[in-house]
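Hey, resending since the last one bounced:
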Amino acid sequence: MAHGVMNIAASARSAKPHPSSWERWLQGKVSMRSLYPLRFEPIFKSMLWGGQRLPALLRQSWSGQQPIGEAWLISDLPGNPSVVSNGHWRGATLRELLQREVDGILGQQQQQWRKSGQFPLLLKFIDAQRELSVQVHPDDEQAARLGAGPCGKTEAWVVLDRHPKRSRIYAGLHSQVTEASFRQALQQGRVAETLHDFVPQVGDCLFLPAGTVHALGAELLIFEIQQASDVTYRLYDWDRVDPVTGQPRPLQVEQAWLASTGLAGHANQFNPR
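The structure tokens again:
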């Protein structure tokens, strides 16, 4: 499954390959403004909870020693533009493509997306070798109210790999949890006890509406599709210290509670058909 997603969404090699015979034929048949199956260079993100397998998964050379937590496959976020790696549009950013080929990329009916001028989705791989923080993402209205950008972040996960004993997914709060009891658990380092959790299987899918309290456990490889937002409010970070700063990573507890859509409920887990 990872291989299929990888070939669609990311460049297979760091070096720019010579076009194959069919690519040369195709390039001779289409104009500069025509669209074709596009590949993009992945954008690697260093995270303290990440690992080292994403560059190898995407067949990219990587000489750095820092852990890589995410590979952004398709992005139109400011400062992180996806760049085409094949064909006529090689070297163009996704934003430049949108400016020239908006009908072909977004269609003619999605007026809200067309008006924004931004590709509405962010696609990525996540290599969680350690637990991610317990966190919340705002919805569109909450993001605007909190000054967090033009849109919120609803997301969905597909489990590509996991450790059969050590991997867990946390999503949603137990029904008896109140704000007061959660804050007490936060002070006592017992946040995991307040969360729904399960042992994931390869192929599991999880839909996480904005406002859901959630966290990825350790040793998970995830494909994520989400709204085009990178806004995260941390509630709890497992009492760990950032090795770069020597300090705990900052929490945004008050913003997280404002962004949360409710104090009870669990995420929607389903199996793809």
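The first helix runs from residue 2 to 9.

Sorry for the duplicate.
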